[in-house]
Amino acid sequence: MKIFRKKIPLKEALAKVLEGVSPVDVEEVSFSEALGRVLAADVRANRDVPPFDRAAMDGYAVRAEDTFGATPESPVRLRLSKSVREGECVPVQTGEPLPEGGDAVLMLEFTRRLGDGVEVLKPVTPGKNVSFRGEDVRQGDVVLRAGRKLRPHDVGMLAAIRQRIVRVYKKPKVGIISTGDELLDPLTDEPQPLRIFDSNSYMLAALVEEAGGTPLGLGIVRDEAGREGLKNAILEGLAKSDVLLVSGGSSVGERDFLADALTRLGELLFHGVALRPGEPAGFALVGVIRKPVFMLPGFPVATVAAFEMLVRPALQKMQGMPPVERKSVLARAKRKIPSELGRTDFVRVKLEFEAAGVYAVPIRTSGAGVLSSMTKADGFVLVHEEKEGIEKEELVKVFLV
Amino acid sequence: MKIFRKKIPLKEALAKVLEGVSPVDVEEVSFSEALGRVLAADVRANRDVPPFDRAAMDGYAVRAEDTFGATPESPVRLRLSKSVREGECVPVQTGEPLPEGGDAVLMLEFTRRLGDGVEVLKPVTPGKNVSFRGEDVRQGDVVLRAGRKLRPHDVGMLAAIRQRIVRVYKKPKVGIISTGDELLDPLTDEPQPLRIFDSNSYMLAALVEEAGGTPLGLGIVRDEAGREGLKNAILEGLAKSDVLLVSGGSSVGERDFLADALTRLGELLFHGVALRPGEPAGFALVGVIRKPVFMLPGFPVATVAAFEMLVRPALQKMQGMPPVERKSVLARAKRKIPSELGRTDFVRVKLEFEAAGVYAVPIRTSGAGVLSSMTKADGFVLVHEEKEGIEKEELVKVFLV
Fold it and tell me: Mutation test of the interface with chain B: which of A32, A136, A358, choosing the one with the most B Cβ atoms within 10 A?
């Protein structure tokens, strides 16, 4: 039994993964369908926004110089008109084009209407309450950079500059296989003694979706399929996918089957990472085009840890994104969190908000098989390999889930 | 011109909105399609997870008492067998059912294989390295509570307990109308002088999608439609939607048209909020079934602010969620942020990471029409109505976008 495989540091594992994956192809989509997609090229404005000078307030368009010296005691009188010539003003509403000849907008509350004229009670300076052409965006400006995951406001910006089509990375197709004789498919199988329902396939599909990929559930491969069956499942899965996630059977036999199959089909770059949970994770490049395959642990929390640490960064790179951390908050450790030098620990925590500040409370029942430690968690803390643990009250970064 | 409408405090506006909206209907979906949906009922486990005692490590299943007193110098010898009787052990791999008779798992590294037997170098206590039946979840436990927005790990949990169908709130259907003679549809219209492309409709659709609703773009209503046309557009929109967002034309005439139409069709609960930007926001309940309609400002940043402060909480309640804040970080204000008592300011900021900590830097070009102030922002800071502003170096909460 080859149990004591070499575990490599997480950093090294991640470096091999990122070296092994490349951005997927690019496609063109309507801006209106682009939310959450990643830009493959900078977007430059092909027009000024706004395309004309406009009023930023409700009031009167004026020549600022006509208002100089106005006070409530000695107001300046302007004639209402259609355009703004000397001594004239034009009523204007927020967002409307600034009438010709005007260079400022006088707010309504600093005026008094008087017959066919207006009394100005306070002067304005030129440009006051005017939103100038190009104030938001100038023609030629880069408004959104390649590598950006588009947010709702970005979609609004693309509409504003009428960028109908955007070049984005395709969503990586991620094949998902579970292996293990003990597994039943919760969608199709009935309960059986000494068998468990496969949670990894469905959880990984959801994680992939959240990370911007398209999950392809490829089902369960059992021991009876044999080495050939597993090899074929991998090759068939890879034919449909940009990357394959194979979450591992429980038994060493199954794990070795998989490592063996990947070694025969390509290059197994590592198998075993100094990550807890998540140690059995591995990574291979298969075939002449070296398609990436992840070996993920059978226990669900271990699979989550390996996904967060290795697969999510890979999916980001495949989508042309720079590395982006999960959103995080700083909190104090409510208890000491023991760890070991040379190993990265993935610790599920709840947040508690106390008068003294935010605390990260490690969840006690925390075996790699205890998925409820993940559903109960607000986030996770990483204890990096150069640390022996985290002291009580120490400030830690909690990555929010 | 009815410009100086009464502005109500944001808190009061929000209270009226939350009182005016109710959770939408419930539907049943497969757990595998439930990511991001909100549970309408608690989910209880209908089985133990794991459903049997299992090994938490690779090694040998033993009776713990047989190992007592074992040391490297005087190891205890156990016979390999198929079940665990006195003096026997059974090889077992992580995740496999614990063989009958065993009550602990001895890690491989504390043993030495010797012919048909095993030398034990270290004792184990009963229960060691065993993951007991129900350790993760016990039958009858509530594993996920009503009101929870389902995360990837929750989907995994639903698979693990084989909860095939879950009751979730329907996705609220959100109709979106833009009003304004100056607007062109970027998907279908060509540029015209003194016209701008409608960004609100597409940005609101994306915001709604992000917030868990289903957006229905209902196009642009122009002044030429008249009061009747606007009224009909509202009624037709409401017939297809659970809630309607009408983002406002630039001119006071248009705004009054809308307020007028809503007053005729139902009850206009407020029009004008002490929120900057976002002041022209309003809220009405229309028809005998009092369907909610939001009036949103024409300027895009004002619409974003009103959406974040009023519409997002409404969509949460409509989906049966408790109020959930955006994720946030604490940062120090890089500059003084002036505001006014009695008004809530929605201030776009960038985050800067310095040795001294995280700083929130207000974005300078910040008119309500300057959408790039949103696309450049990492988040926003709220200056609440009871504050006159934020001092330089003051600690603020930055809501991340």
Answer: A136
Interface probe for B, chosen from A46, A203, A276 (most Cβ of B below 10 Å), is A203
Confidence of residue A364 (pLDDT cuts 50, 70, 90): confident
Q: First-to-last CA distance in chain A?
A: 37
Residue of chain B whose alpha carbon sits nearest to that of A188: B164
∠ Cα A360 A366 A370 (to 5°): 125
Shortest distance between the Cα of B266 and any Cα of chain A, in A, equals 27
CATH hierarchy code of domain B26-49+135-169: 3.90.105.10
* 3 state DSSP class of A193: coil
Look up the CATH number of domain B328-400.
Answer: 2.40.340.10
pLDDT in tens, A145-154: 999 999 999 9
Backbone torsion region of residue B393, taken as left when φ is above 0, otherwise alpha when ψ lies between -120 and 50, otherwise beta:
left
* Non-local CB neighbours of A211 within 8 Å, separated by 6+ positions: A311, A312, A315, A316
pLDDT band for position B249 (50/70/90)?
A: low
Q: What's the pTM value of the predicted model, to 2 decimals?
A: 0.95
Q: Render pLDDT for A186-213 as a digit per residue (tens, 0 to 9).
A: 999 999 999 999 999 999 999 999 999 9
Question: Are A49 and B196 a contacting pair at CB < 8 A?
Answer: yes
- Whose CA is closest to B212, among B328, B303, B346, B321? B321
Of B51, B162, B250, the CB nearest to A186: B162
The domain A54-131 is placed in CATH, from the list 3.30.750.24, 3.40.640.10, 3.40.50.300, 2.170.190.11, at 2.170.190.11
ipTM of the complex: 0.94
Is there a contact between B153 and A95 if contact means CB atoms under 8 Å apart? no
Q: B10-25+171-318, which class in CATH? A: alpha beta
The domain A10-23+170-318 is placed in CATH, from the list 3.20.20.70, 3.30.70.640, 3.40.50.970, 3.40.980.10, at 3.40.980.10
| Mean pLDDT of chain A, nearest integer | 94
